[in-house]
Amino acid sequence: MDCRHVCLHLHQPVWSGHSPNAAPGLCPTDPRLQAPVLPSLEPAVDLQQLRDLFRLTAHWAPDRTVEDLRIALANSNPVVSATVGDRLVGLSRATSDGVYRATIWDVIVHPDFQGGGIGRKLVQTILSHPFVSRAERVYLMTSHKQSFYEHIGFQVNDSVTMVLHNQPLEVACATVRAPQIQTQTQLTQSLASR
Description:
Elements (H helix, E strand, L loop, with lengths): L6 E8 L25 E3 L4 H11 L8 H9 L4 E6 L2 E10 L4 E9 L8 H11 L1 H4 L3 E4 L5 H5 L33 H9 L2
Parallel strand pairs: 5-6
Antiparallel strand pairs: 1-2, 1-3, 3-4, 4-5
């Protein structure tokens, strides 16, 4: 299959209302902790097409909703998609701490475009991103495509396979308080009054 007409896109998270050069963690209240406030991706991913692509190709995730996909993508970096014109034909995403561990998620390619190297390019683009390439180990979960990923350099690793199927947990003490941020003037006045 000739896939030279397929374009790959790297999607970057953009926090609205913040300076592009300011890290969101430096804000008095971290916006990532506020569920309605999530970064958008630039360029945007067509979430309806993505949901349809999951329904068509991902036997492990056919019931993902547009809203859940929006949240998943907003909390992933990097996100890479493959398009033909305006048509979404592939996507992959990763999460990473940038140093020790990264995990690749959801490598999906439309069946009409499988076998043309798009999946390999999606994974290689994810692996070359600094958040992933600098990580000591990169993990990937797959149920039936081990040989595909072995050709890219992954190895089967049975020693770290554990899963927790999330369920409601009773927590004895769940109160979390954000640290109080003081300005330099407030800090000086506080110290002077002691």
